[in-house]
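Protocol step 4 of 6: structure prediction from sequence.
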Amino acid sequence: TSIGDGAFDGCYGLASIHVDSANTVYKSIDGNLYSYDGKIFLQYSIGKTDTSFTIPDSVTSIGDSAFYSCDSLTSVVIGNSVTSIGDGAFYSCDSLTAVYITDIAKWCEIAFADSTSNPLYYAKNLYLNGKLVTNLVIPEGVTSIGSYAFYKCSNLTSVVIPDSVTSIGDSAFYDCLKLT
């Protein structure tokens, strides 16, 4: 009935997680752990050899340490339904090189718990609809840019922020070294 944060940390050979179908708290999909309703992604099986992972559309939250030390993971697709990403969700994902999204406004709204919650901490490359983001235009209507939203997004060279933005969170553009 309860699995604590980081319960599978360091289990590098863990290739699959299976939950009994009678469990009313958790479920497994494709060998990964989710909340029973499928809205919270809790644990990626770090022993998998997959190099890319797409967060299912049903997921609204990625849990603490969900991808902790997933060395084989090189890219991740974050869907528009994700609104929060927990502490250290992508901590030590040293092989990550790409983060794919389809809506920059939704990306700006994600509540990242800390810098290593954002996969950009390691990937450094954000792709919007398959194209590397270098000249970022925040859409009109966006009112805030969340903390860590573009943290270490190394290819950003320019950002256009509309009048509708009234707040920019902590470290939103931290370490964007090419930003002029």
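Step 5 (inspection) to follow. Helices lie at 104-109, 120-123.
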